[in-house]
From TrEMBL:
Domain Transketolase-like pyrimidine-binding, first and last residues per copy: 554-755
Enzyme Commission no: 1.2.4.2
Gene3D superfamilies in alphabetical order: 3.40.50.970, Multifunctional 2-oxoglutarate metabolism enzyme, C-terminal domain, TPP helical domain
Name the record gives this protein: 2-oxoglutarate dehydrogenase, mitochondrial
Cofactor: Mg(2+); thiamine diphosphate
Species of origin: Hibiscus syriacus
Similarity comment: Belongs to the alpha-ketoglutarate dehydrogenase family.
SUPFAM superfamilies in the cross-refs: Thiamin diphosphate-binding fold (THDP-binding)
PANTHER family documented for this protein: 2-OXOADIPATE DEHYDROGENASE COMPLEX COMPONENT E1, 2-OXOGLUTARATE DEHYDROGENASE
Places the protein is found: Mitochondrion matrix
Taxon lineage: Eukaryota, Viridiplantae, Streptophyta, Embryophyta, Tracheophyta
Keyword terms of this UniProt record: Magnesium, Metal-binding, Mitochondrion, Oxidoreductase, Thiamine pyrophosphate, Transit peptide
C-alpha cells in the first residue's frame, strides 16, 4: 500500500500483521511503506505515540527477518548498523531516533511551504503544521548540537555534499533555508518519484540560491524598467485606466529570466496569454511592443490603418491587445514571443493559447514539443474561480491536445478583484486546483526578486525536462485599486494601511545590493537615468507615431484578402466530443475491428502515400469552452488547413458562449486577428426535446455584422461580401454542398439551391415561393408531392450569412406573382426569421415586390424553450407547419400556427 494510515488500534494491529507476514523482495514494498511514504496522523500526541509504535515494530520486524520490510528500510538498517560501528560520535543514537529524524525531513518536504515567508505584507495568518515541531519526534533543545546519521537516505536529495553525519541544528538550518524561505515548494503530491527526487536535488542543494554581480545587475536593470514604466504612465496619464503592475513588478524580471532560461534549453517560440493586470508592462518590457505605439494609444492617437489607408476594425482597449516580436535573450539567442489578444473574460484566452501552441508545434515538426511553449498568466481569483482553468489543465496530457507542458504564473495580489481569499475560494491556496493534474507549485514572495527569478527559471527547467505543467504563484499585492481611479481602502482598509507605507520591490532590492557592496548608488542612478531617458524619447516619438503596415498578420496569413480587397469565387472540379465514433451513428471517422479492436481511419487513405499527419480526428474531453478555445487557437496559426470542432448537439455549444462572443464573432474587428475555424453544430427538430433540437442559430445570426438594409455590390467580379462579413453561417442540405462549403471550392458552393423542378427564368404561374433553410426542406417537398402542389416553389437558403441578396432577387424575379413565405421549424423568436426578414424585405423593396408586411411567416409560435419534450406534440406541430406552408389557402401577414 502506498500510504499507511495508522490512526486507530485496528490500524496498529494491521501494522503488526503486515510486518509479521514477511515476503519476498518482489512483494514487501507493498507490505511496508518506504521512509518517504509514511503517513503522519493529525493529532500531535497520537502522532508521537504512533511514530514510536511504528518504528519499534519496524525495527523488530527487520531484526527477525530483513526480507519482511521495504528494501529501502532494509538498506537503512544495514547502513546504520555499519555506520554506528565505525563512527563513535553517534554510538548513542538509536535507530528509532534516526528514523524519526528522517520523518522530520519528510515533513519539511511536504509542509515546509506552510512556514515559508510568502506574504510581502505579513497579513496572511497560517497555522504552522504540527509535523514541523521537534517535539513530535521526541527531540528537545538539548539535542540541537548532537550529531545524527542521515546519509543512508540518499533518495531524499538531502545532504548531497556527502556529509552523512551532521548536528540536528545544521539539519534544521538547511531545511529552513530550503523550504521555509521566500519560496514555498509544493511537489510531494506528484506521484512520480523520479520527479520528486529531481526537485529535492534542485531545492536541497548545499549552497543557497545566489547570483553573481553580473546577474544581479541584469535583474536590477529589468526591475527598474518594470517599475519606472508604471511610474511613467502614472505621471503622464494620471486618470487613465491601465491596470498597472505596482506591487507585482517582479513579474517582469521573472518572465525575462524564464524566457532566457527556456531559450538556453531549446525553446524557440513562446505563446503568451494573460489578463489585463500588468499587460501593458509585459507588452512593452517583455514582448517589446514599441513604447511609442503604447504611448500613442494612451494619447488617443491614430487608429489602425491598412496598406491602402482605410481604417480597419473597431479596436479595443489597449490592455486587451496583443503583439509579437523576435526578442534577443541574455544568452545570445533569439526567441519569438507572441502575446494573444483577449477580452475581459480573464482566463478565456487559456485554451486559445494552448491550441495556438499545439499548432506551432505541428507546423514546425516539433515532435518533442521542446521548441514551442505556452505561458499563461492568471490572477489569483480567476485561477481558483474560473472553470476554464481546469478545462485547460485537463487538456494537458491528452494525446491530441498536449503541448508538452504549460507554465502558469499566478499574479496573486491576494484580493483578486476586491475579494478577500476567504470569500474567493474554498482551498488554502488559489493554485490548489493544479494539484489534480500533479503539477508542482512554487509559491514565491513577490518582494524578493531573486526568489522570483529562481522560481521562474526552475519552472522553465521543469517544463523542458518533464514536459508537463508547472505553476509559479507570485504572492504580491496591488498597490492601487482594481483600476487606478478605484479606492481600495473601502473594502480592504487594513491591507491598504500597510501598503501605503510598504517599500516597493525595487527599493528593497536596491538596499540589498547596496548593503552587499556589489552595486553603488552611482550604478543605480545610471540605470535609472538611462531608462528615464528612453521613456521620454519614446513619449516624444509617440506624437508622430503612424502604423507602417498590418503587422497583426502572422507570416502564414500573408496574402489573405482584407475586408477591403476583392476575392473572386473560384471553380475547381477536422475535433469534437466523440467524433471518432459519431455520437448518433450518422458517420464514423474511425472504424474499429470488431475482433481485434484495431482502429482504421479511412480519411488517412484518401490519396496514395498520404502523409499520416494530413488528417487528424480527435475525441476531445467533455468540454465545450476549453476545447473550442483550443481549436480556435489552433486555427489561428495557419490558414492552409481545415480545423473543425463539433458539438454532440448544437445547443451544447452554449457552454462555450464566451469563445463565440469574444473571439470568433469579433476577434478580427477588435484585435485584427484572423481565424480559420469551422464549427459544426447539429441542428434540426426531430422530437428529441429542447437540448437536442437547436443550435441556437439566432445567436450566431444576431452577432453577424452584415447590414440588413443595404444591398452590397453583388457583381461577381467586384463582390467582397464574404471578406466584409465577420463570419459565415450556413445550414446545408446536401453532402456535396457540405463538402464545397468546407473548402469554399469544388464545383462551387451553392449559397442558395433553387427549386428542384428546374423552372424557367420566368414562372408567372407559381402562386407561392417558400424560402427555408435546413432539413425542413425535405418535409416540405414531401408535402408538396403528396398534394401535387405544382404551383408552389421551394428554395433552400444554404448560406444565411452573409445574406445572398443576388440569388434571392433572382428567385423573386423568377416568380413575379408568388407570395413570399419564410418557413422554419424553430419558434418565431428563434431560428433565422428575425435575421432573414429585414434582409428579405430589403431585397423585395428594391424590386418593387412589396415590403416587410408582405413576408409570410410559417413556423412555431414564440417560445421560451427551444422545443417541446413531448414527441406527440412535436409531431403535431411539425405536421401543421409543413401543411401550412404548402396549403392553397392564403396566409395572413406574419401568420403563425
Amino acid at each position: 500500500m502506498g500510504w499507511l494510515r495508522a490512526g486507530s488500534s485496528v490500524a496498529k494491529l494491521a501494522i503488526r500483521r503486515t510486518l509479521s507476514q514477511g515476503g519476498s523482495n518482489a512483494t514487501r514494498s507493498r507490505v511496508v511503506p518506504s521512509p518517504s511514504h509514511i503517513f503522519i496522523p493529525p493529532s500531535l500526541s497520537l502522532r508521537h505515540k504512533l511514530h514510536r509504535v511504528y518504528l519499534e515494530e519496524l525495527q523488530r520486524a527487520w531484526e527477525a527477518d530483513p526480507d519482511s520490510v521495504d528494501v529501502s528500510w532494509d538498506n537503512f538498517f544495514r547502513n546504520f548498523v555499519g555506520q554506528a560501528a565505525t563512527s563513535p560520535g553517534i554510538s548513542g543514537q538509536t535507530i528509532q531516533e534516526s528514523m524519526r529524524l528522517l520523518l522530520l525531513v519528510r515533513a519539511y518536504q511536504v509542509n515546509g511551504h506552510m512556514k515559508a515567508k510568502l506574504d510581502p505584507l505579513g497579513l496572511e495568518e497560517r497555522q504552522i503544521p504540527d509535523d514541523l515541531d521537534l517535539a513530535l519526534y521526541g527531540f528537545t533543545g538539548a539535542d540541537l548540537d548532537r550529531e545524527f546519521f542521515l546519509g543512508v537516505w540518499r533518495m531524499s536529495g538531502f545532504l548531497s555534499e556527502n556529509q552523512p553525519v551532521q548536528t540536528l541544528r545544521s539539519i534544521l538550518t538547511r531545511l529552513e533555508q530550503a523550504y521555509c524561505g521566500s519560496i514555498g515548494f509544493e511537489y510531494m503530491h506528484v506521484a512520480d518519484w523520479e520527479k520528486c527526487n529531481w526537485f529535492r536535488d534542485k531545492i536541497e542543494t548545499p549552497t543557497p540560491m545566489q547570483y553573481n554581480r553580473q546577474r544581479r545587475e541584469v535583474i536590477l536593470d529589468r526591475l527598474i524598467w518594470s517599475t519606472q514604466f508604471e511610474n511613467f504612465l502614472a505621471t503622464k496619464w494620471t486618470t487613465a485606466k491601465r491596470f498597472g503592475l505596482e506591487g507585482g513588478e517582479t513579474l517582469i524580471p521573472g518572465m525575462k529570466e524564464m524566457f532566457d532560461r527556456a531559450a538556453d534549453l531549446g525553446v524557440e517560440s513562446i505563446v503568451i496569454g494573460m489578463p489585463h493586470r500588468g499587460r501593458l508592462n509585459v507588452l512593452g518590457n517583455v514582448v517589446r511592443k514599441p513604447l511609442s505605439q503604447i504611448f500613442s494609444e494612451f494619447s488617443g492617437g491614430i487608429k489602425p490603418v491598412d496598406e491602402v489607408g482605410l481604417y480597419t476594425g473597431t479596436g479595443d482597449v489597449k490592455y486587451h491587445l496583443g503583439t509579437s516580436y523576435d526578442r534577443p535573450t541574455r544568452g545570445g539567442k533569439r526567441i519569438h514571443l507572441s502575446l494573444v489578444a483577449n477580452p475581459s473574460h480573464l482566463d478565456a484566452v487559456d485554451p486559445v493559447v494552448v491550441g495556438k501552441t499545439r499548432a506551432k508545434q505541428y507546423y514546425s515538426n516539433d515532435v518533442d514539443r521542446t521548441k514551442n511553449m505556452a505561458i499563461l498568466i492568471h490572477g489569483d481569483g480567476s485561477f481558483a474561480g474560473q472553470g476554464v482553468v481546469y478545462e485547460t489543465l485537463h487538456l494537458s496530457a491528452l494525446p491530441n491536445y498536449t503541448t508538452g507542458g504549460t507554465i502558469h504564473i499566478v499574479v496573486n495580489n491576494q484580493v483578486a478583484f476586491t475579494t478577500d481569499p476567504r470569500a474567493g475560494r474554498s482551498s488554502q491556496y488559489c493554485t490548489d486546483v493544479a494539484k489534480a493534474l500533479n503539477a508542482p507549485i512554487f509559491h514565491v514572495n513577490g518582494d524578493d526578486v531573486e526568489a522570483v527569478v529562481h522560481a521562474c527559471e526552475l519552472a522553465a527547467e521543469w517544463r523542458q525536462t518533464f514536459h508537463s505543467d508547472v505553476v509559479v504563484d507570485l504572492v504580491c499585492y496591488r498597490r492601487f485599486g482594481h483600476n487606478e481611479i478605484d479606492e481600495p481602502s473601502f473594502t480592504q482598509p487594513k491591507m491598504y494601511k500597510i501598503i501605503r507605507n510598504h517599500p516597493s520591490a525595487l527599493q528593497i532590492y536596491q538596499n540589498k545590493l547596496l548593503e552587499s557592496g556589489q552595486v553603488t548608488e552611482e550604478d543605480i542612478s545610471h540605470i535609472s537615468q538611462k531608462v528615464g531617458s528612453i521613456l521620454n524619447e519614446e513619449f516624444l516619438a509617440s506624437k508622430d507615431y503612424v502604423p507602417k503596415r498590418r503587422d497583426w498578420l502572422s507570416a502564414y496569413w500573408t496574402g489573405f484578402k482584407s475586408p477591403e480587397q476583392l476575392s473572386r469565387v473560384r471553380n475547381t472540379g477536422l475535433s469534437g466530443q466523440d467524433v471518432e465514433r459519431g455520437t448518433l451513428s450518422h458517420r464514423h471517422s474511425v472504424i474499429h475491428d470488431q475482433e481485434t479492436g484495431e482502429q482504421y481511419c479511412p480519411l488517412d487513405h484518401v490519396i496514395i502515400n498520404q502523409n499520416e499527419e494530413m488528417f487528424t480526428v480527435s475525441n476531445s474531453s467533455l468540454s465545450e469552452f476549453g476545447v473550442l478555445g483550443f481549436e480556435l487557437g489552433y486555427s489561428m496559426e495557419n490558414p492552409n488547413s481545415l480545423v473543425m470542432w463539433e458539438a454532440q448537439f448544437g445547443d451544447f455549444s452554449n457552454g462555450a458562449q464566451v469563445i463565440f462572443d469574444q473571439f470568433l464573432s469579433s476577434g478580427e474587428s477588435k484585435w485584427l486577428r484572423q481565424i480559420g475555424l469551422v464549427v459544426l453544430l447539429p441542428h434540426g427538430f426531430d422530437g428529441q426535446g429542447p437540448e437536442h433540437s437547436s443550435a441556437r442559430l439566432e445567436r450566431f445570426l444576431q452577432t453577424s455584422d452584415d447590414h440588413p438594409f443595404v444591398i452590397p455590390v453583388m457583381d461577381p467580379t467586384l463582390r467582397k461580401q464574404i471578406q466584409e462579413c465577420n463570419w459565415q453561417v450556413v445550414n446545408v442540405t446536401t453532402p456535396a454542398n457540405y463538402f464545397h462549403v468546407l473548402r469554399r471550392q469544388g464545383t462551387r458552393f451553392k449559397r442558395l439551391i433553387k427549386d428542384q423542378n428546374m423552372h424557367s427564368d420566368l414562372e408567372e404561374g407559381i402562386r407561392r415561393l417558400v424560402l427555408c433553410s435546413g432539413k425542413v426542406y425535405y418535409e416540405l417537398d414531401d408535402e408538396r408531392k403528396k398534394n401535387n402542389a405544382s404551383d408552389v416553389a421551394i428554395c433552400r437558403v444554404e448560406q444565411l450569412c452573409p445574406f445572398p441578396y443576388d440569388l434571392i432577387q433572382r428567385e423573386l424575379k423568377r416568380y413575379p406573382n408568388a407570395e413570399i413565405v419564410w418557413c422554419q421549424e424553430e419558434p418565431m423568436n428563434m431560428g433565422a426569421f428575425s435575421y432573414i426578414a429585414p434582409r428579405l424585405a430589403t431585397s423585395m423593396t428594391s424590386l418593387g415586390r412589396g415590403t416587410f408586411e408582405d413576408i409570410k411567416y410559417v413556423g412555431r409560435a414564440p417560445s421560451a424553450s427551444t422545443a417541446t419534450g413531448f414527441y406527440s406534440v412535436h409531431v403535431k406541430e411539425q405536421t401543421e407547419l409543413v401543411q401550412k406552408a404548402i396549403q392553397p389557402e392564403p396566409i395572413k401577414c406574419n401568420a403563425v400556427i
